[in-house]
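Researcher: Dear colleague, please comment on this protein.
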Amino acid sequence: MGEPPRRRLACATDGEGFISNLSLRERDAATIAQIGKLKANVLEFMPVTEGVAIVDQAMADVSAGKVSDANVASFMMW
C-alpha cells in the first residue's frame, strides 16, 4: 500500500517570534494577510492631498484612454 502522502510544511512566525508549522496553503493565506496589512499601513501615512492627486490622475488617464489591460493587470497584482 505504501506510505500515505506527507503533508508539506513551512515555518512561519506569528509576529512575536513564535514559530509554527503551517501547510503551504496556510502559509500563503498568512502571507497575503500580512501584505494586506502593509498596504493599509502605507495608505495610513499618505497625505490626503497626495491620495486625491493620485486618484485624479488615474481618472484622467482612464478618460484619455491611456490605461491598457496590462496596466490594470499590473495594478491588480500589486
Remarks:
- The longest strand covers residues 9-13.
